[in-house]
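Hello,

Our lab assistant flagged a job as stuck in the queue for most of the afternoon. It eventually completed. Since we weren't sure the result was trustworthy after the delay, we are filing this so someone can double-check. Below is the sequence as submitted and the structure that was eventually returned. Let us know if re-running is recommended.
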Amino acid sequence: MSSTTSGRSTGSPGPTFDPYDNTPELIPLRTAALAGDWPAVRAFVSGLDSVAKVSTASSVLAEIPGVETMLERAAAELPGDPLPRTLLAERYVHIGWDIRSGARAQHVSQDQFEQFHSWLRRAEQLLIEVCAEQPAYAPAWTVRLTTARGLQLGQAEARRRYDRLAAHHPHHYRAQTQLLQQVCPKWGGSWEAAHGFARECATAAPDGSVPATAVALAHIEHWLDLAGADGTAYMRGVPVRDDLRFAAQVSVLHPAYRPDWDSVGAHSAFAFAFSIGGHHADAAPHFAFLGDRATEFPWQYTGDPKASFLTFRKLATQA
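-- returned structure --
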């Protein structure tokens, strides 16, 4: 299945940002979680064939309201199993981040910060235990990158955690996206560090794999920080365009690439980055793959994700 022909029809109003529409293989996980059926949840996750899929499952499970009740019970009943503690920790992180909100620090109240940090510390304690017992357990280290950022443990500690994970799983895309956020200026990093890490992900990964998408994510974050005319000029620049073209060609447009659970997010990132730079012909193959699918990130950065997607998709098809 090629990356330019596997999208859904663009005849409907679209797009859907629902992860279960975009990855229907996850529906049984949601069904089991809503039923409070821990054995079914564990069977689903245990049956996944990659660390990347386990991390995706953990992420979507963390968004289900009330799932912590089932996970707390499972963690208590299975104290030696890393899975329920890791899933519970990610759920705690999600609860905390919902309280904090996605606003910049100056717009978050002291009470929000206190609750946010309380939930993250609960998650961190669980994850410390898991990582001590299972040093190669990537799902736990991945969540610890988020807790490191939220608890403001600093660049060195975040990189230490990523390096511990990468020693066993060197191209774990979700972990890379978490560290990329950390090394951006908004979390104490720099643009030199952000773009440098993105290039590191792209050049180290095998051709036809998704990590080069980090290049697009870094440019999107830089655009967001610049804002307005400066941001537009930045994305329209030839160096950025060429950087994006290279990253797309070695990842989701490479002949060796095989679509997976990260594909909708990766193509969304490239479609968005090319579109806001006015490179509509370059965006076209990514929209062709997506059809009526997309991930909220990064489209929410426009303020009206659906309208922006439809507008840019139309421009791409006319390019």
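-- support follow-up --
The delay was a queue issue, not a problem with the job. The result is valid. The longest helix spans residues 110-133. The mean pLDDT is 93.
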